[in-house]
C-alpha cells in the first residue's frame, strides 16, 4: 500500500482553494467550483472535499471543529531560515492566522505555525539547508 495523498473536509471551498493555491503555492488540478478539488504540492496529492457533498456521498453526518483545531498539522519545508520568515509574512498578509511566530528552536530548526481560514494548523520550517540534505 502506498500513500497517495491526503484531504481536508472544507466548508468554504472557494476560500480554501484561494488560500492553498495563491498563498501557499499548491497547484490546482480541478475547477474551483468542484465539490472535490485536487491540488498538488511537490508531487503529493492534496484533496479538498466539500463537507456537505462528502456527507451526501457517505450517507452520514459528521462533527466539525470551528476555529483552531489540533487534530493534525501540514508541514511545509523551505531551504533557508530567512525563507521561513518570508513565507510566514506572506501567509499572514494574505489571511493566515498567526499561531506561533518564527523561532529558532533549541534543536536547530527554525519553525513557525499558521492556520488556514478554517483553522487547520500548518508548520513552516527549515534546517537552513536544502530539502534533499535536511535529514543528513
Considering the chains and any ligands shown, give keywords for the structure.
four-stranded mixed β-sheet; globular; alpha/beta; 136 residues; 2,3-Dihydroxybiphenyl 1,2-Dioxygenase, domain 1
Characterize the structure shown:
It is a single chain. The chain is α/β, with parallel strands linked by helices. The protein folds into 2 domains: 5-58, 2,3-Dihydroxybiphenyl 1,2-Dioxygenase, domain 1, CATH 3.10.180.10; 73-133, 2,3-Dihydroxybiphenyl 1,2-Dioxygenase, domain 1, CATH 3.10.180. It has helices at 13-23, 51-58, 81-93, and strands at 5-10, 27-28, 36-41, 44-50, 73-77, 97-104, 110-115, 121-126. The strands form 2 sheets. Strands 1-4-3-2 form a 4-stranded mixed beta sheet. A hairpin with a 2-residue loop joins strand 3 and strand 4. The radius of gyration is 16 Å and the shape is globular.
